[in-house]
Design brief:
This protein has 332 residues and is α/β, with parallel strands linked by helices. The protein folds into 2 domains: 150 residues, Rossmann fold (3-Layer(aba) Sandwich); 147 residues, Rossmann fold (3-Layer(aba) Sandwich), CATH 3.40.50. 31% of the residues lie in helices and 19% in strands. The chain contains 10 helices and 12 strands. A 6-stranded parallel sheet has the order 2-1-3-4-5-6. Helix 4 links the parallel strand 3 and strand 4.
Length: 332
């Protein structure tokens, strides 16, 4: 392993969801970084009545949906600023994903402490418009939706990646198993249930897991062909489950114009991918023997796809989409 990062210190502000901060920290430490974690408070603190009224006015009259998130960030910033004040060492880099989850004052304080600050918005800009106020606060600002680069000349396109510190060949593979994990979204229950039924008809084993993050209404009398999780599966646990599976399922989120982590995990962990995201055809690793694209309920050709062996890529492809290469590129 290249030791170029040994002795470097990086501060990370990562969206606190399904163990992602820990996943970043572990892979960064694997590469030799000293990691400082700026904790992201996930609690939905109530905002004052005055700000609630301002939010409603801005949202429905001015079409500005940023006030509530900005107010919450301001309420939470005291603890984070106190944490930053106690740092008395050199920080080489700072990396934020979803920087809009932190207040602007917190970002500015981090910039004072770090040699270079980087942001990566792995959700669409229009989905979380508060982030538009953060574009000029960083040395580099990356987005994963290539269409977002048209919204500001300083935005740089990059892809997601796969974490490359957990690759193992020791896991026993459950033959014909198809793994999926995701949060509950509008219409996803029906879509996932229909896909599971289709895969069962093809003698595949759908190992599908849904975390009901938003406490969406569920028909408790219905027998779903997937498991409902009370607590989310951590990112690390899902990586382990992926490596035990034969196939991966990826469902495209129409709010985005990019490829999910699942796509790159199928590449890095050498799994065949079943997806409805046709954008994958535009990438240099697209191979119809390894990636099956379906539309709606049309799975024509999947039988041949199942029978054909996984085709290895050139080592340069695996390296290109690894976390090691990703972090190297964005910190340059």
């Amino acid at each position: 392993m290249d030791n170029q990062f040994a002795g470097k210190t990086i501060l990370i502000g990562i969206a606190n969801y399904v163990g992602l901060p820990e996943r970043f920290q572990e892979n960064l430490e694997f590469l030799g970084f000293k990691v400082i974690v700026l904790k992201h408070d996930t609690s939905r603190v109530p905002i004052p009545l005055k700000d609630s009224i301002i939010h409603i006015y801005k949202k429905f009259i001015l079409n500005d949906k940023t006030h509530k998130q900005s107010t919450r960030n301001k309420i939470k910033e005291t603890i984070q600023l106190d944490f930053l004040e106690r740092i008395n060492e050199k920080i080489d880099y700072a990396l934020f994903t979803r920087p809009d989850l932190f207040s602007i004052e917190v970002i500015k304080k981090v910039n004072q402490l770090s040699g270079k600050s980087i942001a990566y918005q792995w959700d669409g800009i229009d989905r979380y418009p508060t982030v538009k106020k953060y574009f000029n606060l960083f040395d580099k600002f990356f987005v994963f939706d290539i269409n977002d680069t048209n919204k500001n000349p300083n935005l740089i396109f990059t892809t997601n990646f796969y974490f490359d510190d957990l690759i193992s060949t020791k896991h026993s593979i459950e033959k014909k198993s198809v793994f999926f994990v995701g949060s509950a979204m509008k219409d996803r229950f029906k879509t996932l249930n229909d896909i599971a039924l289709k895969l069962k008809q093809l003698h595949l084993i759908p190992n599908f897991f849904i975390y009901n993050y938003g406490k969406k209404k569920i028909d408790k009398n219905k027998n779903y062909n997937f498991s409902l999780l009370i607590e989310p599966l951590s990112f690390k646990s899902s990586i382990i489950e992926i490596q035990k599976s034969d196939f991966l399922l990826d469902l495209h989120n129409p709010a985005h114009n990019g490829l999910s982590f699942r796509t790159f995990e199928s590449l890095g962990y050498k799994k065949k991918l079943i997806t409805n995201n046709s954008l994958v055809k535009d990438y240099d690793f697209y191979n119809p023997n390894n990636i099956f694209i379906f539309q709606g309920n049309d799975f024509s050709g999947i039988e041949d796809f199942m029978k054909s062996p996984y085709e290895l890529y050139n080592d340069n492809i695996y390296k290109k989409y690894s976390f090691t290469n990703w972090i190297d590129n964005i910190l340059k």
